[in-house]
Amino acid sequence: MEIGLIGLGKMGGNMRERLRRAGHTVIGYDRNHEIADVGSLTELVDAFTTSPRVVWVMVPAGDPTRATVKELGELLSEGDVVVDGGNSRFTDDRVNADLLAEKGVGYVDAGVSGGVWGLQNGYALMVGGTAEHVAVVQPIFDALKPEGESGFVHAGPIGAGHFSKMVHNGIEYGMMQAYAEGYELLAATDVVEDVPGVLRSWTQGTVVRSWLLDLLVKALEEDPNLDDIKGYVNDSGEGRWTVEEAINHSVPMPVITASLFARFSSRQDDSPAMKAVAALRNQFGGHAVTKASQAAAESGAGGPGGTVDS
């Protein structure tokens, strides 16, 4: 099967390779022309020799995806299908689908999980759209998913794929935060002498074993004290959207919400809120406070490192 793939970054590039290994013809476009197969979206669409044409978009969510979908709507024909495989917010899907429907072009939203390991292990796929449009893309889904019966779901109508991926990533936030806090406590005590070994022991036979735990063990094998990593953690949006939807639907999510706020805390070198807490403790209880000049001096003398970057 022929497929156009827009965005050949860490995931898109590996997806192109996995599809080619499965025998599919991939026409790849990227702003970095050194890794692209064609020089423009027009050339990508014109390179197809079969129809209907399927074009998979793997570019940053928001304006880049919306602009790409809009341009494809002007280039594609009735019966063609666009797949948004990026981390778009599910509310964007209906807008994109309606825009393409004016030209008779189908739309499928695909939540994709697998990261840089997808080439080797396959990608978990959660898709939304009509049965007709999903069926057109099914050979591609089959090639990208892991071997076996699991790893792919037609989750529902347009938007269901990205909504499912949003919740998936929210859960991921909570799991990573729990592992990170456990690691920090293990590292803070002098009772445990082999922290990486403890975490490694959990990877078999325990109820907390997971691929995320395997990856934490791998990170510690490469950098036992995580000295090369700053405890600053970004969020790509899905955690925020998950919490917002939890509020909209009155669903309690204390763990995922706390893990999102923990990421915000990681970006503060000197938390204003914690300054206020220290000042209040000093005011009502006479508790000692650490002056900024003192903290800087202690830091220069070699204070403790940052927490794990999850």
TrEMBL record:
Family: Belongs to the 6-phosphogluconate dehydrogenase family.
InterPro entries per the UniProt record, alphabetical: 6-PGluconate_DH-like_C_sf, 6DGDH_YqeC, 6PGD_dom2, 6PGDH_C, 6PGDH_NADP-bd, NAD(P)-bd_dom_sf, Pgluconate_DH
Keyword GTP-binding appears in the UniProt entry: no
Pfam families reported for this sequence: 6PGD (PF00393), NAD_binding_2 (PF03446)
Gene3D superfamilies per the UniProt record, alphabetical: N-(1-d-carboxylethyl)-l-norvaline Dehydrogenase, domain 2, NAD(P)-binding Rossmann-like Domain
Oxidoreductase is among the record's keywords: yes
Name by which UniProt lists this protein: Decarboxylating 6-phosphogluconate dehydrogenase
UniProt keywords, alphabetically: Gluconate utilization, Oxidoreductase
Organism: Cryptosporangium japonicum
Residues annotated as domain 6-phosphogluconate dehydrogenase C-terminal: 161-310
